[in-house]
Design brief:
Elements lengths: L8 E6 L3 H7 L4 E4 L6 H7 L5 E5 L6 H5 L6 E5 L8 H7 L2 E3 L6 H16 L2 H9 L19 E4 L3 H12 L4 E4 L10 E2 L3 H7 L2 E4 L13 H7 L4 E4 L8 H10 L4 E4 L18 E3 L8 H20 L10
Length: 317
C-alpha cells in the first residue's frame, strides 16, 4: 500500500505545459486531468483537491467544479477568465485568481508589433522575399505609423501599456471605457462608435465574456472605415468575426492584426487569402519571461490559500 503523502492535493485542469505540472509536483500531489486516460477516474481521485490550476484558454466548467467537493480555489494561468464558470464558483464560495500584472507589457508589445507589421507590410514583404518575387512583385508605398491616431477599447492594465507605447510613436491616444479615468491624460470617448470614427487604429484590449461579446460589430467596423485598422490582442469573441471578414474582403476596412479568434483554434480559411491581415496564434503573452513570472504568481496564490494567507491576485466577481 502506498503511504499517504503529506503534500496538499491539487488538480491541473488543462492548458498548462509539462514543465509547469512537473514543478507543481515538487510542492503538491498533482492530479493531472488533461493527461489522464480516464477523466472520470481522475476526477474521483482528485475529489480531495483543495485547489485547481488551469490555463486561461481552458478554464473550468460547472460539471468539473461539481465533481470537486473540497475545492476552495481556482488559480488561472493568464489574465482572462471568460472560460471559468463564475456562477459555479460563486455558489460554492470558491475563490478565483489570475496572473494580472505580469502579461500586460508583452501583450502591448504584440499590439504595436501587429500594427507595424500590417501598416508597413512587413509580413507581406517577407512572404514575397521568401518566394523570390523581389523585385518583380512590388508592395508599393506603405503608410507612416508615427502620428496616426490610436483608439483603445479598454484602458485597463494592457490598454495603459499600449497607450504608453503609442505615445512613444507620437500617436494621439483616445479610449473607450465604461467610465472615464480621471488618472489618465488620454481623450475619452463615451461612445465606441465615435472612438472608431476618430481613430486610425482601434486596438481591442478589454476583457472577454458576455458583456463584451460582439462589442465590435458592424457599426463599429463601419465607423473605422476603409482606411482604418483593427488590432485584437484581447479575446476573439469581442469582435464579430463574420462582419470583420466581410469588411476586409469588400475593402470596407483597411486591415486587421489578429492574435485571437472567435472559435480558437479554428481560423476561417478566408483570412488566409487576404494580404490586408496579419495573423498570430494567440501568442501575445507568450514570452519566456512572462510565462515564468505568471507561473510563479499562480503558484504563490495556491500556496497562500493552503497557508491561510491573503491571495496575491484575487478576482472579484
Amino acid at each position: 500500500m502506498t503511504p499517504k503523502s503529506d503534500k496538499n492535493e491539487i488538480i491541473a485542469i488543462g492548458g498548462l505545459p509539462d514543465w509547469m505540472v512537473a514543478e507543481l509536483r515538487d510542492d503538491y500531489v498533482v492530479h493531472d486531468l488533461e493527461r489522464a486516460t480516464d477523466r472520470d477516474a481522475a476526477l474521483r481521485a482528485a475529489a480531495t483537491s483543495g485547489a485547481a490550476v488551469t490555463g486561461g484558454n481552458t478554464g473550468i466548467d460547472a460539471a468539473t467544479v461539481a465533481a470537486l467537493p473540497a475545492l476552495k480555489l481556482v488559480a488561472s494561468f493568464g489574465v482572462g477568465y471568460d472560460r471559468v464558470d463564475l456562477k459555479a464558483l460563486s455558489q460554492r464560495g470558491i475563490a478565483l485568481t489570475n496572473t494580472a500584472g505580469v502579461v500586460e507589457r508583452c501583450v502591448a508589445d504584440m499590439a504595436l508589433g501587429l500594427m507595424l507589421s500590417l501598416t508597413r507590410r512587413i509580413a507581406l514583404a517577407d512572404r514575397l522575399m521568401r518566394k523570390g518575387l523581389w523585385p518583380t512583385a512590388e508592395i508599393g508605398l506603405t503608410t507612416r505609423v508615427t502620428g496616426r491616431r490610436v483608439g483603445i477599447l479598454g484602458l485597463g492594465r494592457i490598454g495603459v501599456q499600449v497607450a504608453k507605447r503609442a505615445v512613444a510613436f507620437d500617436m494621439p491616444v483616445g479610449y473607450h471605457n465604461r467610465k472615464q479615468r480621471s488618472d489618465m491624460p488620454y481623450q475619452y470617448f463615451p461612445s465606441l462608435v465615435h472612438l472608431a470614427e476618430w481613430a486610425d487604429y482601434l486596438i481591442v484590449a478589454c476583457p472577454g465574456g458576455g458583456n463584451t461579446h460582439h462589442l465590435v460589430d458592424d457599426e463599429v467596423i463601419g465607423a473605422l472605415g476603409p482606411d482604418g485598422v483593427l488590432i485584437n490582442i484581447a479575446r476573439g469573441p469581442i469582435v464579430d468575426e463574420k462582419v470583420l471578414l466581410r469588411a476586409l474582403q469588400k475593402g470596407h476596412l483597411g486591415g486587421a492584426g489578429l492574435d485571437v479568434f472567435e472559435n480558437e483554434p479554428a481560423v476561417p480559411s478566408a483570412f488566409l487569402q487576404l494580404d490586408n491581415v496579419v495573423l498570430t496564434p494567440h501568442k501575445a503573452g507568450s514570452t519566456r519571461e512572462t510565462w515564468r513570472e505568471a507561473f510563479e504568481l499562480m503558484r504563490e496564490n495556491v500556496t497562500a490559500m493552503f497557508e491561510g494567507r491573503a491571495l496575491r491576485t484575487p478576482v472579484k466577481f
